[in-house]
Amino acid sequence: KFQHRAIVDPLAAGQDILSSKHGNTQVPKLLGSLARYIYTGDEADYRAATFFWDQVALHHSFATGGHGKNEYFGPPDKLNDMIDGRTAETCDVYNMIKMARDLFSVEPDIRYADFHERALFNHILASQDPDDGRVCYMVPVGRGVQHEYQDKYEDFTCCVGSGMESHALHAYGIYYESGDKLWVSLYAPSTANWQSAGVKLKMSTDFPAGQSASLQITSDTPRKFTLALRRPYWAGTGFSVKVNGELLTNLPKADSYVEINRTWKKEDKVELVLPKTLRTEPLPDNPNRLALMWGPLVLAGDLGQERKRGPDRNAEPQAPVLVAAAQPVENWLKPVTGKPGMFRTSGVGLTTDIDFLPFYQLPRRRYAIYWDMFTPQEWKKQSAAYAAEEERKEKLEASTVAFAQPGQMQTERDFNQQGEDTSPVQIQGHYGRRGTKWFSFDLPIDTAHPVTLIVTYSNEARRNGAFDILVDGTKVGQQATERRSPEQDIRFFGVEYSLPPPLVEGKQKVTVRFEAAEGNDISGVFGIRMIRADAAR
């Protein structure tokens, strides 16, 4: 009955049209396509669902399995400019895991289990406060960030619902069965009652902290079936399987299933060793910005106690930089004795060594998942400029009263975007809004401080433009833009407008309006920021 053809049809044709689309608005549509395929066999539905899932998992997702910034997709494989800020909505991950389970049921491909494990043990486990049970709307993946826990009494967002349900579904996707074959796709303490085969199993494991797992057959009657054990992509040298103490040989390569076909009887026992090694996982568009991994687990750098309130809540406490000569990660990231899963850098932090732990073990802490990696020679060249830029961003964030992102649905709702003959735009991954008449946003102000408006523009325009900037009907500035020449690079720049005290006196918020001059365009507004004018910048 319902088919959003503008989204589903291009995906079925193999076109990634997700950039600038709201993330969790799309995932349920393709879940629906997959569900319909299961009942109807419509190949177009299957093509759309599988292409969508592959694009999101392989070309839009962070190391944690989450995706999106401010709830929206960016361009595929362009994640470098998306990692900071409000990233990785929990509802999206919840639905991507649900989709991975359903896809595996249709086609038992190991990539679906790989993603399920990544998203479950990184995003989902990290999304809940283990002390009071609160869950996260966003689980940021950036540098110097912290969890976005929902209030126990004031919040009941979509991610509260999916966040609660996620932790009631941990048993789903551990086992799959078909005919005389049982797949073991995740390693977690569990029991399975395979009723159609008359078989019961019990799994014991110290994973994810450890590296061992065992399965005990508990059925009374001998049964012949195939037990398919997942050998993850990260389980290389040292991976082993024993059946009743006998070591299996000629095991398949990593990222495949070890299939054991035999007659199983009560007390038969399978033992596995799942060795986790350290590695780095760089962003697709910036090989020097990377996450540290231990097997499937994201290791987050511990940057100290979370910040409770204040304008600098998201300011970086220190530069998320590691400086090391080109060498394997295990040479400079060492396990901490007596603390399984904890690692400490050795001589590569800027000012001090840094502790890294599995991300889910860092509730209520400031952390960094992605780090900029420099050789000593590179850092010597870039340190001054890097430090200056990080300080500039930190001070700007601390001075900010409010920031509205034109072109993104949720923030435009939050700041009451209004307008006539206006449309969203995206240029090089930057969201914005343009128009031929007018549009406006309502922004709060800080009555205790003088305020300044900063608007971000671009030199990329369809045609020459000219427009006025008004605050509560008073003109505070004007902007003219010319189409850039082909040899000019696209750039983005901010223009400041001081707001006279009488204009804002006694007000809690103001309306910022962009109004096109006769016969001209508002060529594009890519950010609207209200700052405290007397703050250090």
Task: Give an overview of the whole structure.
- It contains nine helices and 30 strands.
- By secondary structure, it is of the alpha+beta class.
- It folds into four domains: about 5-165, Glycosyltransferase; about 190-275, Immunoglobulin-like (Sandwich); about 280-400, no CATH class; about 405-530, Jelly Rolls (Sandwich), CATH 2.60.120.
- The strands form five sheets. Strands 1, 12, 13, 14, 15, 16, 17, 18, 19 and 20 form a ten-stranded mixed sheet that branches. A six-stranded antiparallel sheet has the order 4-5-6-11-8-9, with no helix packed on it.
- The protein is globular and about 85 Å long.
- The model is unreliable at about 310-315 (pLDDT under 50).
Topology:
Layout: H1 5-12, H2 23-40, H3 43-60, H4 90-106, H5 110-126, E1 143-145, H6 158-166, E2 175-178, E3 181-184, E4 190-194, E5 199-205, E6 212-217, E7 223-231, E8 240-243, E9 246-247, E10 256-264, E11 269-273, E12 278-283, E13 286-294, E14 297-305, E15 321-323, E16 333-335, E17 343-345, E18 355-358, E19 365-368, E20 370-374, H7 376-399, E21 400-404, H8 409-414, E22 418-427, E23 430-444, E24 451-458, E25 465-471, E26 474-481, E27 492-498, H9 501-504, E28 509-516, E29 522-525, E30 527-532
Parallel strand pairs: 3-7, 15-20
Antiparallel strand pairs: 1-19, 2-3, 4-5, 5-6, 6-11, 7-10, 8-9, 8-11, 12-13, 13-14, 13-20, 14-18, 14-19, 16-17, 17-18, 21-30, 22-23, 23-28, 23-29, 24-27, 24-30, 25-26, 25-28
Helix pairs in contact: 1-3, 2-3, 2-4, 4-5
